[in-house]
Amino acid sequence: MTAGRLIEVRDLHKIYRVGVQDVPAVRGIDLDIDAGEHVAIMGSSGSGKSTLMNMLGCLDTPTRGTYRLNGTEVSSLGDDRLAEIRNREIGFVFQTFNLLPRNTAAQNVELPLVYAGVRAAERTRRVARALADVGLADRSHHRPNELSGGQRQRVAIARALVNSPSLLLADEPTGNLDSVTSDEIMVLIGELNARGHTVVIVTHEEDIAARCRRVLRLHDGRIVADSLAAGRA
Known about the structure:
Layout: E1 5-18, E2 21-34, E3 38-42, H1 49-56, E4 64-69, E5 72-73, H2 79-89, E6 90-94, H3 105-115, H4 120-133, H5 149-161, E7 167-171, H6 179-194, E8 198-202, H7 206-209, E9 214-219, E10 222-228
Helix pairs in contact: 3-4, 3-5, 4-5, 5-6
């Protein structure tokens, strides 16, 4: 693995069986992403971007090819090891926030630490820091229904960061937000990237992709363009 290389993908394929037919979703992708990059993955419906995201996030395994994440070959690991990798190496941010409605912001952020077996005192310290990092130190005891959409997404981002993962993977992170709140969330994600977090965003929105430094475009399961975002030369 090259020094500084976080993601290394070679000849990645994903084929789904639908009835008696094989349906290729990802077709022979090669991809390198270095630590600290800010990358957007774009493509229309059916382009393979969601399938690629699921494999990069260790939520799905490839039919063929290899995927090394932070030096570990993950493409052939079993479910238990993949779960460990996800909890340790990847922070997820989803369009729908995926917060537990009965838990406070702090309790939602704490969940990855509970799964990792972190002691209570250390959990409290890390949760407070993560919420402060996203500007929600004063909302730790609020439940999701007491927060705005932007605040809920900030809680989700704090939860994604609380384990200090190698990769922040965001799937349409502004899809349920208005334009002003979307801008605030993208500013926050940009600030996190500037602090050294590696960020990969899956989006179909050009203005969101333009906030990233590098843009990958997928079509029919292949990367057809890999370039700097407009104005980010």
